[in-house]
TrEMBL record:
Protein name: 1-acyl-sn-glycerol-3-phosphate acyltransferase
Organism: Humisphaera borealis
Alphabetical keyword list: Acyltransferase, Transferase
BP GO terms, sorted: phosphatidic acid biosynthetic process
Pathway the protein takes part in: Lipid metabolism
PANTHER family given in the database record: 1-ACYL-SN-GLYCEROL-3-PHOSPHATE ACYLTRANSFERASE (PTHR10434)
Amino acid sequence: MSSTNATKKSKPSDERGTITSRILRAGNRVYARTFHRIDVQTPCRLPRTGPAILVCNHISGLDPLLLQAVIPRPIVWMMAREYYDIAALRWVYQAVDAIPVERNGRDSSATRAALRALGSGRVLGVFPEGRIETSRELLPFHTGVAMMATRAEVPVVPAYLDGSNRGMEMLEAFVEPNDVKLRFGPAVDLAPSTPGEKIDLNICTSRIFDSVSSLKKTMAYA
């Protein structure tokens, strides 16, 4: 799958966002890089412009903040609706264009919103496990990322993170200093092995899973 084709199909996008969203991202960079220790072991492989999907394993409620702090482009995160509906924080999620998702896996409105974000040239952030890990074993990935990536014809860039905040919910992880390690990998090739072959979402999902798993295996813990 070619990211060039996806970029040509996408509409121009002004990723600077509102003044509020820019202030929030700047504040998050200061918070994440001073209160927490983030060891970025490989550079981010997201394209400088154009649509893409960032996938990562999910170890705590703080993951989106930690990832956004080291990625220059703003990320449109897909997040569980129960977090999005916290009244005191909803304005924050709305300011950064977060997309609430029902956990039942049948949220077509969230899928449409995600495809619109990709169509406007944005980077979509997804945790394909669908819930927080409690051990260092990756949970099975849902096929939603593969479906959106192949439909929108955008690259999928994997990341793997590990840290002392594993298993913590958002508030606990926010107030507890964390030692986090992070690796990024190259875009995953989701093209069929044979030209003209029908895309198999399960095969594509396995490739995405394997790309994150390979980053886990190469994580340095010196």
